[in-house]
Design goal:
The protein is of the alpha/beta class and 137 residues long. It is built from 2 helices and 8 strands; from the N terminus they run βαββββαβββ. The protein has a 4-stranded mixed beta sheet with strand order 1-4-3-2, covered by helices on one side. A 4-stranded mixed beta sheet has the order 5-8-7-6, covered by helices on one side.
Length: 137
């Protein structure tokens, strides 16, 4: 069975500094703030940053403490942004003083690099060339 219209919508983070995160995602990926909501009582400020039509990062204000990183964790590891040209993306990020933590060829022959946002969230950048087993036209 499949679900009609199913697609990935967003990943959400609590951030230490909303302005810094909005600027960073805008500068790094051209993400635009499309839905800001002010804090309401116990509910924190939030906003959606759109990378591409219908593809978002949702950020919440009020982050204060990094989660501890146990060895061999279960759960979230990173989110992935697909790019047409990994070297071009890395050159752009280098101009922002963002350097890849790792860079390699994946098992499906995709080109991969990992970076982190200002709050330490891991982001995979992936270029999928036509010879890759996961390439889709």
């Amino acid at each position: 069975m499949s679900i009609d219209g199913l697609r990935f919508g967003h990943v959400a983070f609590k951030v230490a500094d909303v302005g810094r995160s909005v600027s960073w995602y805008g500068d790094a990926f051209g993400a635009k703030k499309v839905y800001p909501v002010e804090a309401q009582g116990e509910r924190p400020e939030l906003m959606f940053l759109e990378f591409h039509k219908g593809q978002f990062v949702e950020i919440f204000s009020g982050g204060k403490n990094m989660l501890p990183s146990p060895s061999d964790p279960i759960g979230y590891l990173h989110f992935c942004v697909q790019v047409d040209n990994l070297e071009q993306a890395l050159a752009h990020l280098a101009s922002m003083n963002v350097k890849p933590e790792r860079k390699f060829i994946g098992r499906a022959q995709q080109r991969i690099a990992f970076i982190s946002d200002p709050d330490g969230n891991s982001i995979e950048l992936m270029e999928i060339p036509p010879e890759s087993a996961i390439y889709r036209d």
